[in-house]
Amino acid sequence: QVQLVESGGGLVQPGESLRLSCAASGIRFNSATMGWYRQAPGKQRESVAVITSDGSANYADSVKGRFTISRDNAKNTVYLQMNNLKLEDTAVYYCNAYLGRHYWGQGTQVTVSS
Known about the structure:
mainly beta
């Protein structure tokens, strides 16, 4: 059974940083494309950052230069370093694994508020 467990969300002020973590189990992590998605109230879920099994990363235009996705295959963990957070980054952030099908975590709340 695949499990994705996110952590690291919280309440921060604009300009501050957070680091999200997603620990995966029950999946061949080394082979999976991992990603972070987010969903703000009243909006559709959107892709934030994706990293392939070979380490290639892609980002949404709205987070380029501020967010960094990385993975530690030894720990079966993917990270999202979020710097210079903005009010519009407020959302529930979901970890995603793709290996033939999509798997989702339960989500972690990130709130950016002054």
